[in-house]
Design brief:
By secondary structure, the chain is of the alpha/beta class. It has two domains: about 210 residues, inorganic pyrophosphatase (n-terminal core) (Alpha-Beta Complex), CATH 3.90.1640; about 120 residues, Diaminopimelate Epimerase, Chain A, domain 1. Helix content is about 35%, strand content about 20%. The protein is built from eleven helices and eleven strands. It has a six-stranded mixed sheet with strand order 6-7-8-9-11-10. A five-stranded parallel sheet has the order 2-1-3-4-5. Helix 2 packs parallel to helix 4. Bound molecules: manganese (II) ion (MN). The site of manganese (II) ion has 6 residues, from loops.
Amino acid sequence: MTHSSGLEALKRALSDVDRVLISTHMNPDGDAVGSVLGLRGILESIGKQVEIVISDSITRKYRFLIDKPVLKPDSRELENLKEAERFQMVIFLDAAEKKRVGDVLDHLDRWMSPGALEVNIDHHFSKDVFGDIVIVDPDRASAAELVMQLADTLGVDLSPVIAGQLFAAIMTDTGRFQFGNTDSHSLKAAAKLVEEGADPSRIARHIYMERPVSYYRLLGNLLNSIELYHDGKISMIAMSSDNIATYFPDGNMDSEGMVDFTTQVEGVEVGILLRQTGNGTFKASLRSHNGIDLRLIVETFGGGGHANAAGCGIEGSLEDVKEQIVSEVKKWLK
Ligand SMILES: [Mn+2]
């Protein structure tokens, strides 16, 4: 199914549906948050009743985008739903694999009507695409661009609020229009959203320029100990549980974007951020900018993502994990 036939299929299916549930991946990023909020506004404007439920909380810097409550799996609003309150459609956004949606999946049985349709709107490359209706296009830089195409298909005009939400999604997933996925499509989509009332400066200010000072103190600490491997073609910063506890004692850590600094070093082709997630467990985030397909690297560890931005979990001591990831990356570098 091409994504345009998916859009038409979704338009047809929506005509029989009153209540729609929307969700996205765990630890929602800017594209996830902006896309679910924008999609809710679009579906509400054609008369649907819509709830958003996400397994994790929305990071502080994206909360200014929230125009109406976003639920969690244990929210009171989702307890003991009567038959008429159940949802006839669930739409997953920006989730390369269904399991990335997290805890929400464990509750769908009690929220959904029998025979409810599952819709998958995404822009990741995936080997096993899920969903009854599939709108997946790995050529798009953000899920938000697919949401905009849906609005077009449905004939919905975007309000300034929706335009802002979708603009934030495109801006963050393209790294402020600087990553390799930035193309004329994403720039035209962004321009259209500005015409519809999105305010780029205000959105950038909220997301990038109002971070807690702890963010910069942790970043400074990490940059101070950046390591280079393989003639300076690989760089790495490693964030231990102790680091995190020192700078974010409440555990409410924000490290989004820190990995981008790893590829802003002269000569570096692949940058790695290691973050300790438990005793002997680490999450590796990788970035590349010379055409190396990181998916091939993280696949070895059961991870996924995009060609130039991917991640995976790795187990072992810090030194062992560094050795594992660096030796895998080296195989793909000349
Ligand atoms: Mn995305």
